[in-house]
Write a structure and sequence with these properties.
The structure is a single chain. The chain is α+β, with helices and mostly antiparallel strands. It folds into two domains: about 20-275, Thrombin, subunit H (Beta Barrel), CATH 2.40.10; about 280-380, PDZ domain (Pdz3 Domain, Roll), CATH 2.30.42. The protein has seven helices and 23 strands. It has helices at about 1-20, 40-50, 65-75, 260-275, 295-300, 325, 345-355; strands at about 80-90, 95-105, 115, 120-125, 125, 130-135, 140, 145-150, 155-160, 180-185, 195-205, 215-220, 230-235, 240-245, 255-260, 280, 285-290, 315-320, 335-340, 340, 360-370, 370-375, 380. The strands form five sheets. It has a seven-stranded antiparallel beta sheet with strand order 7-6-1-2-3-9-8. The longest helix has 21 residues, at about 1-20. The protein is globular. About 40% of the residues are buried.
Length: about 375
């Protein structure tokens, strides 16, 4: 057991290091009032939902490498916007100070629906009270938050505009490693910056060490602070991802950036239009999929006398005073089922947690050193 705890401690240290790097990009949460759709006409909602389901046009093949990148940038860039937030934070001595943030967004409908990151529209853990969207042509609009998905780091905004430039939506399922892509956004407030690169990896899984979604697009196109919420487009100028994070030991681009696939964004937008804000349930654990071959080999070598479950989530760490801690979960436990449903992958587990309502009791089946027990956890707001 001491070996197991030492092994889990090493994984927890790795988790903390990764969390420090990703903190800037996944530092948001959900607290306070839910933002539900309000003031949107049914015609506008139906038009957006119809556009999300429209078949993807293949587009004309590029005539040369230079022309390909230029045409792609000209097609997508007008729909990429600045997103500026302003609000107040309280100081330790009882006062407050005004702060702001900068990010990017992408217009997905002519009447002003804008997709960006959840963390872009927040100041600390709260939705920013003032959000301004600035178009590439200089027009400025006050934006309101229709809803957020804290887990997938997506926010849907609405501005009151007409005949706005719209990003053509692509099909992220058609991407292949090595495809050329461009990232368009506002790094460090530098409007409509375009960088180029390739798809470095697909279905990149940063999950398993906390509440960071898997299935991301990895690219070496330069992404920096301020690019969050901006466009990742293919060589035909079609939106295939929303830029969301980088991995870097220095806090700036080193050629490892990540984007949320546009096909997932489509689904999240549909859910936000139907339910408002989602993905806010939090239980407070770090975990890995115990079916991972490398992890299983290590466990079998180090703990030959223990027969670990074939599937489930191995708990690496439990946050102090979190719902999981209060319920009695601890490092070394393996979650094998949730509400009676076997846990077969990280993606499945994350999606199940994402759909949990606040104060809804979750019943986990837990393996602990060869014994099976049931633990009930009541999540709180992230």
């Amino acid at each position: 057991m001491r070996k197991l705890l030492g092994f889990l401690l090493l994984f927890a240290l790795g988790f903390l290091t990764g969390a420090y790097v990703l903190k800037t990009y996944f530092g948001g949460g959900l607290r306070g009032d839910f933002y539900t759709p309000a003031g949107i006409s049914e015609t506008s909602k139906r038009a957006l939902l119809t556009s999300l389901d429209m078949p993807v046009s293949p587009g004309a093949p590029p005539t040369s490498f230079e022309t390909m990148l230029r045409n792609a940038a000209e097609r997508i860039a007008p729909a990429v916007v600045n997103v500026d937030t302003t609000g107040e934070v309280f100081t330790w001595w009882g006062g407050s100070r005004r702060v702001g943030g900068k990010g990017s967004g992408v217009i997905i409908s002519k009447d002003g629906f804008v997709v960006t990151n959840n963390h872009v529209v927040r100041i600390g853990r709260e939705i920013a009270p003032e959000i301004t969207v600035t178009l590439a042509d200089g027009r400025r609009f006050r934006a309101r938050v229709i809803g957020t998905d804290a887990f997938n780091d997506i926010a849907l905004l609405k501005i009151d505009g007409r005949d706005l430039p719209v990003a053509p939506l692509g099909d992220s399922d058609q991407l292949r490693v090595g495809d050329w892509v461009i990232a368009v956004g506002n790094p460090f407030g530098l409007e409509n910056t375009v960088t180029a690169g390739i798809v470095s990896a697909l279905n990149r899984n940063l999950a398993g060490t906390g509440d960071v979604p898997g299935g991301l697009i990895q690219t070496d196109a330069a992404i920096n602070q301020g690019n969050s919420g901006g466009a990742l487009a293919n060589s035909r100028g079609q939106l295939i991802g929303i830029n969301t994070a980088i991995y870097s030991p220095v806090g700036a681009n080193v050629g490892i950036g990540f984007a949320i696939p546009v096909n997932r964004v489509r689904q999240v937008v549909r859910e936000i239009l139907e339910h408002g804000s989602i993905g806010s349930a939090y239980i407070g654990i770090a975990y890995r999929d115990i079916s991972d071959p490398a992890l299983r080999r290590y466990l079998q070598e180090q703990f030959p006398d223990l027969r670990f479950p074939a599937q489930g989530m191995l708990i690496l760490g439990v946050e102090r005073d979190s719902p999981a801690d209060r319920a009695g979960l601890r490092p070394g436990d393996v979650l094998t089922a949730m509400n009676g449903r076997p846990l077969t992958s990280i993606e499945q587990f994350q999606q199940m947690i994402r759909r949990v309502r606040l104060k809804e009791t979750i019943r986990f089946t837990v393996w602990r050193e060869g014994r099976t027990l049931t633990v009930e956890v009541v999540p709180v707001e992230r």
